[in-house]
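Form 7-S
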Amino acid sequence: MTAHQKRRVTMRTTETLHTDTMLVFGYRIHVAVRPGRPHAVPLVICNGIGAHLEAFDPLVDELDPARTVIRFDVPGSGTSPTPLRPYRFGQLAALVTRMVSALGYQRFDVLGYSWGGALAQQLALQNPRRVRRVVLASTSPGMGSIPGHPLVLSKMLTRRRHHDPAYAIRVAPGLYGGSVRNDAGSARAILGTGTPHCDTRGYLYQLFAGVGWNSLPWLPLICQPTLLLYGNDDPIIPVTNGRIMNMLLRRAELQIFTGGHLDLLVCPAEFAQRIDRFLGGIPPASSRAKGN
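Output:
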């Protein structure tokens, strides 16, 4: 990252976070890297729609500090500028792959949450040798999925819940389910409402990326070990989607938890343990072959 403008900030865990703005395929991408042990396989996190990379601070703080974690704002969200033209998941997956290469990594694990789960699936498909393991949380196979309630999905068509605090608290229980039903304020804290993290055009671009996208026909082609995390009270992504994907993925492990769409971020300690167990421990550099 020395070729780019870089600054260092301190996280709540006092670990060092490197943030950077990178130019990849003509897109300016805001990237944050929490460095772990040298040469270890990093974890790349793909955000939900309209979300900024800081939304994953609670989970990253709980993950094994020896694990390198890479986060980024997709074009048009967070502090990544909105491009002139929309993009598709295939293009975005190529962009993320080039970004990881520019950071100096060949192999990587990927965690995709909600909308970012589609991107994670695309990354696994396009990079069968580079993507080592996949975590898919509260996500779907796209147009072939079992949809949530129409009233719930209608609220996902706009970015209002990301910038209107009163609206976010009002709709949170029915929209996200799980622990948010009894603590709507936690949704506001996670989404960062009150601060614009995604403009209207950027949000529409993210919606457009998923139009017509359907992973059901090619899910059996994904050979990487895959952890599926689904809440039994998720109004946005019904748990049935996890069961369908579990049947189609060749090396999947389905874990159904008691909770909703935001529980991964509202109750991060439990999920960080699950993710760390699945991805495996990180041995000391002296006992690890480079690239493993």
